[in-house]
Amino acid sequence: MTKSNTLRLTCAVTAIMAAGAASADEISFLCFQNGNECDVLAGLITDFEAASGHTVAMEVVGYEIVRDQLENQLQTGAAPDVARVNNLGGLNQYYLDLTPYVDAAYMESAYGNTLPWYRAPGGEDQGIYGWPMELTVTGPYVNVTMFDDAGVEMPGDGATWDDWAAALAEVQSTLGLDAALAMDRTAHRWAGPAFSYGAAFFDDTGTPMLVDQGFRDFAETFVGWHTSGLMPADGWPAGTGTAYQNAAPLFLSGAVAMHMSGSWMISNYAENITDFEWRAVPAPCGPGGCGAMPGGAGIVAFSSTDVPEASAAFIAFLAAEENAARYAAETRSITAHAGLQAAGIDYGDTDPAVAQALSTFAGSIARAAETTPQAFTFQGYVKNFVIYGIVPDYITQVITGELSLDDALAAIDADVAAQIAE
Amino acid sequence: MWTAIGNAFLGSAWPLAFLIYLVVGAVIARPRGAIGSRAMAVLGWPIELAQKLRGHGPLPYLFLLPNLLVFGIFTFAPLFINVGFSFTEGQSINFSDRPFAGTDNWQRLLAETQIDTGAANLEDDQFYRAVMDTSVFVVFQVPIMVLFSLITALVLNRDIVARGFWRSIFFYPVMLSPVVVGFLWTLILKRQGLMSLTLMEWGWIDEPIQWLVDPSWTMFWSIFVYTWAHLGFYMLILLAGLQAIPSDLYEAAEMDGASPWRVLRKITLPLLMPTLLVVTVLSLIKAFQAFEELYAMQVGWISIVAYIFETAGLRGQTTSHGLGVAATASLIIAGALAILSIVQITLSGRNAR
Fold first, then answer.
1. Least confident window among A82-86, B254-258, B345-349
2. Which of A152, A319, B76, B328 sees the fewest Cβ atoms within 10 Å?
3. Distance between CA B113 and CA B117 in Å, rounded?
4. CA angle, B280 then B284 then B289, to 5°
């Protein structure tokens, strides 16, 4: 090809692309992933682009970017059109109401249970703000191989946290482990067990009132688990302030026999655990019920977008039943789609641990809804992220001996009240 | 390659604009002489023109302008924004959404009673704790840093074997990114890390120690790693200071039969004093701002910068007034640092005279 031909061709392509831009919009999409969520979305985006003519520019970033920077981007008008978020209610003021653009009746019938998590508090807001892409729920994973090696029988369905603690202590002493139970450093994982011990978290008016007898009981037990060495020194005590810490590396490396985490880890564990058998177990119970924290991530559009129709069309495309089914199957997540929940997702996975984990977690959500409804209040509470950090801050100081339990509990209530004050 | 160049220039106006610029230059400057000076005249005609019109007076300011702009945007603007944040409240970073709050943030940070809830305030305790912990770090780290960088510089200034090699060994950690330093030492100091395993092998300890978190060790290792990482920089400044001392002074001392200790006390240290002052002030300010290495190592105490970082909501837990409270805290620290530096310079200045 001669030089001038190349030049002509370049000009022609540029012209065609410029002309095409007038009828099709480009949607900027910010995505974060724990496992393969964005990879699966990339497949769905290809279909969307073919069907609609719009293009989607997806940027995959670490979760910390979304958590720490997205709100500032929104405040300064530098935000993407569409993003995957999990601080659902907290970003409400920035969402684009999709009601005029999407089939509202379908969204309500399919996602009616989770759409309120995206709305402003008070019950007057009836907007549709996004596609609830998945439900998550907290719960423990166990290292089955360790229980087998130690010859300890795993507590069955309906077992309490005390039963589990006793069994884990036996595994720990038999195998000579440094620790047996690890938990991510956030009150989001802490809340489920606290609900089991009877903590209510909210008073009758819906105001956070964390410290009650149940909360105190679990705090005492939790500190005791650290004193006795059941929980590791490189878990909660290794963090400072309100910092989050993921305990998955301890479980992956075989340092502990149980990891209190949640359903979002299924795909990671299915992929990365090869040298032992793992299993998700139902959320342990207690006098207050069988507590587990529900949650979820969703894809939302922001009111600052220049392309509201295209953004809404993208979200509506993803929310369609067949695409939601494909997303759930490929990411091995629990769908938020009511029809699919009833019909069941065909995960088509040969790994029995994955199927077992998914059904266990789905069962935990149902049981939490029945026995510990405050879990859903906590999930829907707009400022829950503040509470997630404050509890580890003070409980850690009790574990390291810097504060007495009474002082720490008083401080938690006072600090939460101060941080949520308008 | 031609396609790439074509893509870069097609549809852009600047090649044409540059051509016009050169033509204007050729007309105005009317270049003469060798080819090099002709090219310079054509390229730099705005400067020549400015000089012709206004003389040499304003020229230095023109050259200062780029640096001033960068400094203004990235240093002075944030400073003023910070002052603004400390006197307004709210979660937004836009001043249009931040109502004036007077001294509310100062009370939220320092008062005994929390003004929003009426209960006892906890923020002041957290702030004082961060200040106290950071002070302990500074009080030990700065003298240790100055002492060791002085010793290292004195040794490496002598005529020892492979002097260049040793100098680069001590300077090498300065070139590492702080996060790399943090991760490197985490590998050594974590519970199952190299240090615990080795000491257990030797039978010195019975069970692994969490060096970075254990309350009795965390400060020691923070100071150790921070000194290790920054020693080379201060050593380099002191080496330059040592080499600026005239050698005839040493020769004269040698002829007079002065002992090495006397030479150090009467010649080296007095003449090195200005450099030592620079090193002390710099390392003091740096120690107060210590953050990256400590953050990457997840040490068991909260430094003042970590406190500000966290309170401002930069870890995703934005609170209603966190940004204002954090801005207030940073202003207090900046003020304290400024006073400390001035006092130090004044005192040392008097001594030097």
1. B345-349
2. B76
3. 8
4. 150
Q: Which residues of A touch B321 (CB under 8 A)?
A: 421
Distance CA B322, CA A383 (A): 13
Q: Write out chain B residues lying below 8 Å of A87, CB-based.
A: 316
Chain A residues whose C-beta is within 8 A of a chain B C-beta are: 3, 6-7, 10-11, 14, 64, 67-68, 71-72, 75-76, 87, 178, 233-234, 237-244, 385-386, 388-389, 400, 402, 411, 414-415, 417-422
**First CA to last CA across chain B, in angstroms?**
65
pLDDT per position as a tens digit, A177-219 = 989 999 999 999 999 999 999 999 988 887 888 889 999 999 9
Q: For B158-267, where are the alpha helices, taking DSSP H only? A: 163-175, 178-189, 194-201, 218-243, 247-256, 260-263
Q: What distance in Å separates residue B310's CA from the closest CA in chain A?
A: 8
B217 exposure class (CB count in 10 Å sphere: 0-12, 13-18, 19+): middle
**Contact list, B322 vs chain A (CB under 8 Å):** 419
Residues of A in contact with B190 (CB under 8 A): 234
> Does the pLDDT of residue A282 top 90, yes or no?
yes
Inter-chain CB proximity A242 and B317 less than 8 Å: yes
Residues of B in contact with A421 (CB under 8 A): 114, 116-117, 320-321
* Chain A residue with minimum CA distance to B311: A242
Structure tokens, A318: 């993803």
Closest by Cα among B286, B294, B288 to B185? B294
Question: What number is the average pLDDT over the span B258-265?
Answer: 88
Q: What residues contact A88, with CB distance under 8 A and at least 6 apart?
A: A117, A118, A296, A298
Q: Measured between alpha carbons, how far is residue A197 from residues A97, A201, A363, B78 in Å? A: 39, 12, 19, 48
**Alpha helix (H) residue ranges in A176-262:** 187-196, 213-227, 248-252
Q: Is B93 helix (H, G, I), strand (E, B) or coil?
A: coil
Q: Report the distance separating Cα B306 and Cα B79, nearest Å.
A: 18
Whether residues A243 and B310 touch (CB distance < 8 A) is answered with yes
| Segments in A264-404 forming alpha helices (H) | 266-272, 308-319, 321-331, 338-343, 352-371, 374-380, 384-399
Positive or negative: CA dihedral B23, B29, B32, B35: negative
Instruction: Pick from A415, A416, A420 the residue to mutate for testing the B interface (most B CBs within 10 Å).
Output: A415
Using a CB-CB cut-off of 8 Å, the residues of chain A touching B315 are 67-68, 242-244, 389
Distance CA A315, CA A300 (A): 7
What tens digit of pLDDT does each residue of A112-151 get? Answer: 888 988 988 777 888 999 999 999 999 999 999 999 999 9
